[in-house]
Amino acid sequence: MPEISIKAEPILILGHFVLTNSYLLSLVTLVLLLATAFTLRGKILLIPGKLQSVFEILTEQFLGLMDGLLGDRRKSEKYFPVVATVFLFILVSNWLGLLPGVGSLMIQEASEHAGEAKMIPLFRAPGADLNFTIALALVAQLAVQLFGILALGFKKYSNKFFTLKNPIYTFVGLLELLSEFVKVVSFSFRLFGNVFAGEVLLGIVGFLAPYFIPLPFLFLETFVGFIQAFIFSMLTLVFIAMSVTDHEEHEAHELAH
């Protein structure tokens, strides 16, 4: 039975820098996405072929989904790169973690202390590392706050959290501020829990019933990887929509209808 470790295992230690197996696969994901982007960038045609047409249809569907939340195609096109990048990065990293050989290619664990050597996987799904999901959640939340400030201005945006109109508004503002930190926890633990649970499930099933038995579970985790990427990106979009909308104008609009 393979050892199940909650934390990512170190494969290289250089001073204070520790390269873990999950960090390594996230770097592979980044390089793969960048290489694909630069390769396809020079092949975009005015009259699209079949493959380009498929991607354009998917992009249009994604933008239409964003229109329903943002209510404006210009806003959708403005925030599309961020939301789509989050979706693709999580999706590709999740799927790379499911590839045959990713969990079975073993190396000796790097350690600062002398002792018995332990064999660990060279690659591990980044989503199964809580450090990765927390970092991704922080980046998403910082982007949400930045977009809100740029859209409404620092003073108007900060009034959501700090206002002295009356004690009730002050208390509600503090709850809003607390909720921004809670979102980071919700973001990170949702993604981590699902990816780590899938990794453990596949490991146990592969040990108890190898060969073709784990295939249905592998297909299930492929679907779960897509769903988790979609949920994370959609929550990012929802929070962006909330941050760039003026609450007073939104309430007036709702009353008018």
The parts where pLDDT drops under 50 for at least 5 residues are 250-257
- Placed side by side, the strands forming the largest sheet appear as 1-2
Q: Give the % helix.
A: 55-70%
Look at the structure and give the mean pLDDT: 84
Radius of gyration: 22 Å
Biggest beta sheet attributes? 2 strands, antiparallel
Intertermini distance: 61 Å
Number of strands: 4
The domain tally reads 1
- Overall shape: it is globular
Strand content: 5-15%
Helix count, DSSP H or I runs of 4 or more residues: 8
Give the SSE order as H and E letters. EEHHHEEHHHHH
Structural category is: mainly alpha
What report would you give on this structure?
The protein is mostly helical and 257 residues long. The protein has one domain. The termini are far apart. The strands form 2 sheets. It has a two-stranded antiparallel ribbon. It contains 8 helices and 4 strands. The C terminus is likely disordered.
SSE topology:
Layout: E1 10-14, E2 17-20, H1 21-41, H2 50-70, H3 73-96, E3 106-108, E4 119-121, H4 130-152, H5 154-158, H6 167-208, H7 215-244, H8 247-256
Antiparallel strand pairs: 1-2, 3-4
